Amino acid sequence: MNIFRRELRANLKSLAIWSVIVALLIAIAVAKFSAFAGDPDLLVLLDSIPEPMMEALNMRAFNLTTLAGFYGVMFIYFGLMGAIAAAMWGSDIISKEERDKTVEFSLVLPVSRSRVITAKALAALANCISFVLITWAVSLVAVRGYHPDQAFYDFLALEMQAMFGIELIFLAIGLLLGCAMKQYKLSGSAAVGIILMTYFMSILASMQEDLSFLKYFTPFKYFDAGELFRSGRLNSTYLLLSAAIIAVCVAAAYWIYGKRDLYI
Amino acid sequence: MSIIEVSKLTKYYGKARGIVDVSFGVEAGEIFGFIGPNGAGKSTTIRLLLSLIHPTSGSARMFGQDVAAHGPEIRCDIGYLPSEVYYYEGMKVIDLLRYSASFYGHDSTERMRALAQTMELELNRRISDLSYGNKKKVGIVQGLLHSPKLLFLDEPTAGLDPLMQRKFFNLIREENARGVTVFFSSHILGEVQRLCTRVGIIREGRIVEISNIRALQQNNYKKVQVAADGLNPAAFNLPGVTNLQSENGTVSFFFKGDINAVLHRISALQVTDVSIEEPTLEEIFMHYYE
Questions:
Q1: With CB atoms 3.0 to 4.6 Å apart as the test, which of A32, B22, B38, B69 could cross-link to B9 if both were Cys?
Q2: DSSP 3-state helix, strand, coil percentages of chain A (rounded to 5)?
Q3: Contact list, B84 vs chain A (CB under 8 Å)
Q4: Chain A: residues touching B (Cβ < 8 Å)
Q5: CA–CA gap between residue A157 and residue A185 (Å, rounded)
Q6: Which residues contact B255 (CB under 8 A, 6 or more apart)?
Q7: Closest CA to A228 of A239, A217, A213, A212
Q8: pLDDT of chain B along its 290 residues, tens only?
Q9: Is B119 within 8 Å of B111 (Cβ atoms)?
Q10: Chain B nearest-CA residue for A109
């Protein structure tokens, strides 16, 4: 409990920074939306954009002149930010002890390594939950002026669940990298590298028919805003796949960290 | 009772040698000196005992329990002062000490105040604002705070001024008098000689000698100095004599063996001065390293 509390406090600043960024993003985007809202000329303009480009930006699924459609396009930013924040929190919370050379203090305390991981992972998880709730709350406040209907609120709720799903996957991946990598300085960069790689895979998967098998390898496709909008729910196959990835990463993190030498 | 039992402990970092076949024991209530030059494997041994790293082969037990299997339980009774102390920079000294104490499940506020007072440590400063020596003081207080039964000190005096060093040694002696076992690793022989009852000497990852300090000094070679008129250094060309030097009618050498052989030679001379001394630990140490 003491480790959990200390980590929460130590990560508060990072959470605050991410929250400010997402709040600014929403504020600016919603202000821009006021230019699109209900404008038929925009639809004509959008029709002239080449098809693959629209696919890549996931804009074909949405009508940008409606608030739900606009939020559908926004989702990828929430997803990316959630992924990066979660992966950094996950990897940093473990690897910083080696980077700052505090392992000779923190792991000489009478705690097992698995207890350390549990407390730290829970602290990072609390950060992820807070980040989604803050994104959600800021969104609700930002769109108030447009008096959205219930359908929009339902879709927003679904998007936030999806954002949380992406966060959980990358939190688990980040945790694994933080626990497993002896080159502790690289674990954060490796996490961001994986995010960018899987993100571009998700773009390729939607642009090229014969590359669509890639969708199983990228969490951004598990939680695809277009699909969510069409079906109105999370895909259970992808949810299972996500749960499996998370379970494998977390188990591997515990196993590797439990038996490896700490770098001092 | 043995508090620490190390048997054939070996650690390789990839191909690089850490320690090889290290075996020794530390008895309850003693201050055990662990000496060797930089890179000999002193810190590696301590980190293996604290299970920060895992052995390539061999095993170690503390308080009768295997360190690999019972790390957290064993560490309840251990205090550790690393050679370089690093703490969470953003925290205040007092918060860090409270955080550390919270893991041991008994209230140590009073002891914290007392230790901080002895070591002249300001509790309300931020860790990041502290000098190297002051961080070391935090380390000392943190290591002793929970009244451990076994203390690991890894080159503890680096960064402390002589006055603080003395206070620190007094503190360690007090702890030892209360029954605390101390594992004292250092390359400064003077302090080991002052504090320890037994020493282990480690060199290039291997233990070369484990001995009582007194026995080490007595059973080792003697420093002999003889001054006499018309002295011929060749007179002392005996088996067991090393480092034979002659200067201004004074002959000095190291001798190991039956001292009577030397006394015989001396008695044949008309000497003006003779001294036969035990070597300092430093000289013994250098001898092991040649």
A1: B22
A2: 85, 0, 15
A3: 101
A4: 2, 6, 10, 100-105, 107-112, 115, 259-262, 264
A5: 36
A6: B221, B222, B224, B238, B240, B241, B242, B262
A7: A239
A8: 789 999 999 999 888 999 999 999 999 999 999 988 888 889 999 999 999 999 999 999 999 899 888 889 999 999 999 988 999 988 999 999 999 999 988 888 888 999 999 888 988 999 999 888 899 999 999 999 999 999 999 988 888 888 888 899 999 999 999 999 999 998 877 788 888 889 898 888 898 888 887 777 666 677 888 888 777 777 778 788 877 888 877 888 888 877 888 888 888 888 888 888 877 766 777 666 65
A9: no
A10: B75
Residues of A in contact with B145 (CB under 8 A): none
Distance CA A62, CA A80 (A): 19
ipTM surpassing 0.95: no
Question: What dihedral do alpha carbons A262, B3, B9, B13 form, nearest 10°?
Answer: 20
C-alpha torsion sign, points B36, B39, B44, B46: positive
Q: Which two tokens stand for residue B151?
A: 């203390």
Fill in the DSSP letter of residue A3: H
Two tokens at B180? 């605390």
The β-bridge partners of B10 are: B57
Residue B245's SS3 state is strand
Backbone angles phi, psi at B209, to 5 degrees: -165, 135
- Rounded to a whole number, what is the distance in angstroms from the first to the last CA of chain A? 25
Q: Write down the pTM of the prediction.
A: 0.84
Q: Are B58 and B243 in contact (CB under 8 A)?
A: no
Residue type, B41: G
Establish, for the pair of chains A and B, how many residue pairs have beta carbons separated by less than 8 Å: 59
The token duo for A56 is 């890549």
SS3 B203: strand
Query: CA B282, CA B187: separation in Å to the nearest integer?
Result: 10
B238 with B187: CB under 8 angstroms? Answer: no
Whether B99 has its CB under 8 Å from any CB of chain A: the answer is yes
Give the chain B residue whose CA is nearest to the CA of A110.
B72
CA distance A175 to A116: 12
* Structural domains in chain B plus CATH codes: 2-217 (3.40.50.300), 220-289 (3.30.70)
The pLDDT value given to residue A208: 76
Question: Could you tell me how far CA B187 lies from the centroid of its own chain?
Answer: 7
Element (H, E) at B208: strand B206-212
| Cα gap B274→B225, rounded to integer Å | 6
Nearest to A109 among B47, B89, B103 (CB): B103
As beta bridge partners, residue B274 has: B226
Quick: pLDDT tens for A136-185. Answer: 999 999 888 888 888 889 989 999 999 999 999 999 999 999 998 877 77
